[in-house]
Automatic annotation (TrEMBL):
<feature type="domain" description="Phage integrase central">
    <location>
        <begin position="2"/>
        <end position="79"/>
    </location>
</feature>
<keyword id="KW-0229">DNA integration</keyword>
<keyword id="KW-0238">DNA-binding</keyword>
<dbReference type="InterPro" id="IPR053876">
    <property type="entry name" value="Phage_int_M"/>
</dbReference>
<dbReference type="Pfam" id="PF22022">
    <property type="entry name" value="Phage_int_M"/>
</dbReference>
<dbReference type="GO" id="GO:0003677">
    <property type="term" value="F:DNA binding"/>
</dbReference>
<dbReference type="InterPro" id="IPR011010">
    <property type="entry name" value="DNA_brk_join_enz"/>
</dbReference>
<dbReference type="InterPro" id="IPR010998">
    <property type="entry name" value="Integrase_recombinase_N"/>
</dbReference>
<comment type="similarity">
    <text>Belongs to the 'phage' integrase family.</text>
</comment>
<dbReference type="GO" id="GO:0015074">
    <property type="term" value="P:DNA integration"/>
</dbReference>
<protein>
    <submittedName>
        <fullName>Putative phage integrase</fullName>
    </submittedName>
</protein>
<dbReference type="InterPro" id="IPR050808">
    <property type="entry name" value="Phage_Integrase"/>
</dbReference>
Length: 92
């Protein structure tokens, strides 16, 4: 849905970030079975390497996917990963 409103390069960037950092951690879990703790565990390695801007973007992208799943009736509630951002501290 969003792909129609962004450039091809930006859509590719979004997809690559999910492929690189989220999909390997989620595996073959259906969107209907994904829980907040699964998403938190998927984002933690990115947070651990200090890539906090990437964490913010990943959380935003994950939330957009989950909101879409809710709006299309696949899930009843959106498991949020926004709390990761508030607890993340930069590694200096």
């Amino acid at each position: 849905m969003k792909k129609a409103s962004v450039t091809v390069d930006y859509a590719d960037d979004i997809w690559r970030s999910l492929e690189r950092d989220i999909f390997p951690a989620i595996g073959d879990i259906s969107v209907t079975e994904i829980k907040a703790h699964t998403l938190v565990k998927a984002v933690q390695p990115v947070q651990a390497r200090g890539a906090l801007e990437t964490v913010r973007r990943l959380c935003q992208r994950i939330n957009e996917v989950m909101i879409y799943a809710q709006n299309t009736g696949l899930i009843d509630a959106v498991p949020s990963v926004k709390t990761i951002i508030s607890t993340a501290t930069p590694v200096l």
